[in-house]
Each structure stands twice: as C-alpha cells, then as structure tokens.
Design brief:
Subunit structure: Homodimer.
Enzyme class: transferase
Pfam families: SpoU_methylase
CATH topology of the largest domain: Alpha/beta knot
Keywords: Cytoplasm, Methyltransferase, S-adenosyl-L-methionine, Transferase, tRNA processing
Distance between the termini: 57 Å
Oligomer: single chain
Subcellular location: Cytoplasm
CATH class of the largest domain: Alpha Beta
Number of strands: 7
Number of helices: 10
Radius of gyration: 20 Å
Order of helices and strands: EHEHHEHEEHEHEHHHH
C-alpha cells in the first residue's frame, strides 16, 4: 500500500547542476512535500553556498544532509527503480510516464527497495547514456509552445503528485495496482550490461568500436523487463558459460 513512509525511500538526484541556487530551490521544493533525500552528482558549485541557502528558504537542513558523488552510477547504488526526467523526445523511444503515473510504479517496489528520480543539467538535461540507466522516463506535459521548466519547478510537480497519491493511499487503505516485486538493483544491472558487452565482443557478435547503439537497445529491452535478482543471476550465468565455452574452443 502506498503511504507517506515511501517518501523516505525516494532520492532526488541532480546531475551536474551548474548553479547552487537551483540546488537550494530544489531542497525547498522537496521539503514542502516531505522529501529529504537529495543526491547531487558532480555539482559545479557548493550546495551549501550562500545562494543555495538563501534559495532553500528554511530547507537548509536538507542541504546539510545532501550526498555528493562524482558519478551517476554511485548516485543510483541500491535503487530498484530509476526514473529519469526528459523534456524532449529521444531517437530511441523508452517507456514513458507522466508525473501522475509515477506513484503506480513506486507501489511495485519491494519493501527494501529505494527509488531514484533523476534530473539533468539546466541547459541540456540528461544524456542518452544517462537516460539508458533508467527504467522509465517521465515527461511533464507542459505547454508545447513554451515547455521550459526549471529544475525546482519540475521537481515540485513530481513531488506533489507523489505525495498526493501517498496521502490518498493512506486515507483509502487500498493497495497499489501492482503487487510489490523485487527488482535487480541498479549496480547489479550495470555489472550485467558490462559483462554482456564483453561477451558480445568475445563471440564477435559486436564490433568493439561500434557498440553504442546496440547496447542502448539491449539496455532498453532488459530495463523494460525489470528482472528480479535471481533472473539477473541466471542471465549472468549464461553469459559466463558462453565466455568459458568460447575460451575452450579457441584453445582447441
């Protein structure tokens, strides 16, 4: 059942934010909706700068607890569900949500799983490679003639929809539309993708100098499937055995 307790398992992730003031505004948006876990990836300015504290307007406690990491991979450690924000269509379609549909996916996460909602750079957003780490993309259906939202505004909209659904869940006592499931964690998926890529090169299925599009398509396939840890272990076992067999054949 969705409840406000889920808020403690959601981390808002900001990638390479240019202005610390935007981090402060994001902290304020989070605190108004009862969220407290903010992770910043390689920020250009100190999240505790005077500008950030001023924009936080009473949410300095969130800034003081902010987690800084150098890479998105580290920011997603331990997450079973990763949702990336995208303001534009991508060449390769990905499962897409509106902010109002996010809580339905949160309801499917197991009792121990964390959730990450990832926000990109002010000017360019998230790269295709970063979005490929996400199970879903979320798009705010703003005015198509002027759809520019700053990060804090986008975060406020998403946080509001999540909080509203959780309040309704507590009031109604109803479970979500989906039963909770145990997903493979982000770091385990990344290990599998690196393992799979190495095998594809070993068996000469893929050109090591031209892997980008193939791996993005394979990522999309596996992220859409949302494998459980046991299923991911089976896939890694298949990859390992394939590599061993190819190695024996080469030695003959």
């Amino acid at each position: 059942m969705l409840s406000l307790a889920h808020l403690s398992r959601i981390r808002m992730v900001m990638v390479e934010t240019s202005l610390s003031a935007n981090i402060g505004s994001a902290a304020r948006a989070m605190k108004t909706m009862g969220m407290s876990n903010l992770v910043v990836v390689n920020p250009h300015e100190n999240p505790l700068s005077e500008q950030a504290i001023a924009r936080a307007s009473g949410a300095q406690d969130i800034l003081e607890r902010v987690v800084q990491v150098p890479t998105l991979e580290e920011a997603l450690q331990g997450c079973e569900l990763v949702i990336g924000t995208s303001a534009r269509d991508r060449a390769l379609p990905w499962p897409m949500l509106t902010p109002r549909e996010i809580p339905q996916q949160i309801a499917t996460v197991g009792a121990e799983g964390d959730i990450a909602i990832v926000f990109g750079r002010e000017r360019s957003g998230l790269t295709n490679e970063e979005l490929a780490r996400c199970h879903y993309h979320v798009h705010i259906p703003a005015n198509p003639d002027y759809s520019s939202l700053n990060i804090a505004s986008a975060m406020q909209i998403i946080a509001y929809e999540v909080r509203l659904a959780m309040l309704q869940g507590e009031e109604s006592g109803r479970a979500g539309n989906e039963e909770p499931q145990l997903r493979a964690r982000a770091e385990d998926l990344e290990g599998f993708f690196q393992h799979l890529q190495a095998m594809l090169v070993d068996i000469e299925f893929a050109d090591p100098n031209n892997l980008k599009q193939l791996m993005i398509k394979l990522r999309r396939f596996h992220m859409r499937a949302q494998p459980e840890p046991v299923e991911l272990n089976i896939l890694r076992g298949i990859v390992s055995q394939t590599q061993k067999t190819i190695g024996r054949l080469k030695d003959v």
